[in-house]
């Protein structure tokens, strides 16, 4: 909605600046990428644990 500037006039009329929206968008993108790093790390840990359990089962 920000890219289309939909409803932006309401916020600007209340005293906000467009720069605040740009900064908030940047913060949100950073937060999403940080969470994706944690998600990728958990998937890698799960795969390693799953392989170890399969090897132990085959060895018995």
From TrEMBL:
Acidic residues composition-biased segments: 41-60
Entry annotated with the keyword NAD: no
GO MF annotations, alphabetized: GTP binding
Hydrolase recorded as keyword: no
Keyword list, A-Z: GTP-binding, Microtubule, Nucleotide-binding
Region listing for Disordered, in residue ranges: 39-60
Domain of life: Eukaryota
GO cellular component: microtubule
Family matches, as InterPro entries: Tub_FtsZ_C (IPR008280), Tubulin_C (IPR023123)
Family of this protein: Belongs to the tubulin family.
Annotated PANTHER family: OS01G0282866 PROTEIN, TUBULIN BETA-4B CHAIN
Protein name as catalogued: Tubulin C domain containing protein
Organism, scientific name: Asbolus verrucosus (Desert ironclad beetle)
């Amino acid at each position: 909605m920000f890219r289309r500037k939909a409803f932006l006039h309401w916020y600007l009329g209340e005293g906000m600046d467009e720069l605040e929206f740009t900064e908030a968008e940047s913060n949100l993108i950073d937060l999403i990428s940080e969470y994706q790093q944690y998600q990728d790390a958990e998937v890698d840990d799960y795969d390693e644990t799953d392989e170890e359990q399969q090897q132990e089962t085959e060895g018995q």
